[in-house]
Amino acid sequence: MNIGEIARRAGVSRSTVSYALSGKRPVSEDTRRKIQQVVDELGYRPSASARALANGRTSTIGLVFPPAGNHYTGMQLDFIGSVVEAAAAYDYDVLLSPSGMDSDRSFQRLLGERRVDGAILMEIRLEDDRADHLAELDFPSVAIGRTAHPEGSWWVGLDHTALVQACVHHLADLGHRRVAFVNRPEQLLRAGYESAHRGLDGFTKAAAERGLTVRTYCCGDDAASGQGCVERILHDDPATTALVTLNEAALGGLYRGLAQAGRHVPRDFSVTGVVASRWAETVTPQLTAADVPAAELGRLAVDLLVERLDHPDAPPRHHLLTPPISLRASTGPAGATRSDATP
Amino acid sequence: MNIGEIARRAGVSRSTVSYALSGKRPVSEDTRRKIQQVVDELGYRPSASARALANGRTSTIGLVFPPAGNHYTGMQLDFIGSVVEAAAAYDYDVLLSPSGMDSDRSFQRLLGERRVDGAILMEIRLEDDRADHLAELDFPSVAIGRTAHPEGSWWVGLDHTALVQACVHHLADLGHRRVAFVNRPEQLLRAGYESAHRGLDGFTKAAAERGLTVRTYCCGDDAASGQGCVERILHDDPATTALVTLNEAALGGLYRGLAQAGRHVPRDFSVTGVVASRWAETVTPQLTAADVPAAELGRLAVDLLVERLDHPDAPPRHHLLTPPISLRASTGPAGATRSDATP
DNA sequence: GTCCGCCATCGAACCGGTTCGACGAAGGAG
DNA sequence: CTCCTTCGTCGAACCGGTTCGATGGCGGAC
Fold first, then answer.
1. Long-range pairs, A190-193, Cβ under 8 A, ≥24
2. Interface contact flag, A68 B53, Cβ < 8 Å
3. Domains of chain B, CATH where assigned
4. Distance from CA of A122 to the nearest CA of B (A)
5. pLDDT bucket at A320, cuts 50 / 70 / 90
6. Which residues, at least 6 apart from A94, have a Cβ–Cβ distance to it below 8 Å?
7. Helix (H), strand (E), coil (C) string for chain B
8. Residue A28 contacts strand C, CB under 7 A
9. Are strands A288-291 and A242-245 parallel, antiparallel or unpaired?
10. pLDDT digits 0-9 by tens, A115-168
């Protein structure tokens, strides 16, 4: 079942078989047919390991994501799916690598043992040692998200700052004056996760611009935390009439918390944020939100990585996406009937 | 940066380096130290491709899941995460393969090109050509789910029949007499997806046992379909007071449909089913459901696969899980106030 | 002092492909 | 008829590890 066996049965040399299959040198029509026939007969496929060893490319890309400790969110799922699909279109396989730190064993495997030709990094931090490490080695990679200093590197990302700003302006336009921000978990914020930081920046900036009274919260990635977070918000400032969130996984909990506090969405309270559309459509009322185009980001990341692999000297490229807010049903004008507004 | 370089710098032969690092033959303490020092200095790591070629094992397992066309559900995400994590603990990498059919290009890559040592199959069908193909080749694999004839093969799975039966009995015990079943999409049922079939069987069987009046529905994997499905249910039989579902992704839509029809959960209408706990807890009221232990299934699948790889002649093993129903807040006694019950 | 055995190390072959340089036959130009 | 190309094919080297059999040096037993 190796190339020598094919060569013998076809009555030619191993190199001829190789050339016939790769087309890298001309082979006479007769021999080509003969070889192809033997190959088809035996169902021969060249060994990926041998090929990788010989030409130094594995035809595999690594997808590096954080360890499972914190739950995966729906966004991450969509990324993974679209990356795999896009990679398959370019004839690349995808190797999953759960990796937190730079010194990580799994990360070392990918790079040190040369298991992959390139890597896609998820869940980028503003100061990201994995990204720094890859840049240092000049290892082909594309980040999903951008670090504090993205110059000279390849990435695709969402303009979280602008997105959250748009959410705040949307609420301010509706007349909301007291707004809360529900961020990702505190440990992620402290670790420097890009979306958490830039989202928070955008929130603070836009709130200042519009002269809003705001509070910001961190919230665990699950329903119970979301519910608790709403309780904190309404306890800290019962006059709050709206919130903006980046936290997809807490969304259901946020809604539950509001319902239990007797706040009707959107009549008494508006909710918006940055969330993948399939999750925005799951809650009732459906969430008015900047839809995260996770699948598109995944596809673009693969496009960029393949370009970088094909042209090692190409100048860095990136894509910064700013999807519009999809108006659904979770936001409305402030100052409608609210029980505790008229004591 | 290859083993020859290490050997030269340490003043020994390549084989000695190999033995020093693998420990497969004794090496004097002095040489071992010298070699280790050079290795550390240069940060040497043996090439995975070369090693795979030499000893015929890639230290990689393939995770085969259906193409992205149909959305991924939360369950699948949890599987992927836990499989990757469990595999890492055994020093295996995970290669993702989107694969529908047996003749699939991607599937051929995995097997034909020997990219992986073994495979884990997700989304098993009762008659599954991928599973048959693997069994025929005697290729080490573990299925998540079991085919119609699982004898002699390795698998982990959920007893969907028993789980759905438990749901039906729970509803019947509460006095519900007219119950609907919301299954996965019709195309998946027709394709023979195991969970859809066994779940339906369990539903039909238990309903007959308890003498219930039932209807069964297929429902797309998204919120809009769920909402539409509830409309169909209430149109077909307005006296329906409960439903059982396997369809995680439609859950939010089911709730919305009920709310829009003026049915309060759980006062007017009970909802239950088989759903991962994190999703059951997202909706309000939280779903009483048999919690799918996706992470545990993933881990067990890896355990079994590794065992099979280590002991090629071991007899087939499997794990059939039947998690209990978690009582939450979405079911209640039938026959409470219902507007259209008293015209 | 000689012989035996063990331990540590080495050299060579092998895994299964790719690729380069060379070589022989056929065909065209002179 | 010879010379020079061109085309198709072959053999050998190489990618970077692993593994087997062989070899050399040393110490202990007699």
1. A191/A125, A192/A125, A192/A126, A192/A127, A192/A128, A193/A123, A193/A124, A193/A125, A193/A126
2. no
3. 3-45 (1.10.260.40), 60-158+294-323 (3.40.50.2300), 160-291+326-341 (3.40.50.2300)
4. 14
5. very high
6. A60, A61, A62, A63, A83, A84, A87, B95, B96
7. CCHHHHHHHHCCCHHHHHHHHHCCCCCCHHHHHHHHHHHHHHCCCCCHHHHHHHHCCCCEEEEEECCCCCCCCHHHHHHHHHHHHHHHHCCCEEEEEECCCCCCHHHHHHHHCCCCCEEEECCCECCCHHHHHHHHHCCCEEEECCCCCCCCCCEEEECHHHHHHHHHHHHHHCCCCEEEEEECCHHHHHHCEHHHHHHHHHHHHHHHHHCCEEEEEECCCCHHHHHHHHHHHHHHCCCCCEEEECCHHHHHHHHHHHHHCCCCCCCCCEEEEEECHHHHCCCCCCCEEEECCHHHHHHHHHHHHHHHHHCCCCCCCEEEECCCEECCCCCCCCCCCCHHHCC
8. no
9. unpaired
10. 999 999 998 999 998 899 999 999 999 999 999 999 999 999 999 999 999 999
Task: List the one residue out of B268, B275, B282, B281 whose CA is nearest residue B331.
Answer: B268
**A118, A163, A290 from A266: Cα distances, Å:** 46, 20, 17
Chain B positions in Cβ-Cβ contact with residue A49 (cut-off 8 Å): 49, 52-53, 58, 114-115
pLDDT at res. B36: 97
Does the nearest atom of strand C lie within 7 Å of A339's Cβ? no
- Look at residues B92, B298, B120, B18 and name the one whose alpha carbon lies nearest to residue A105: B92
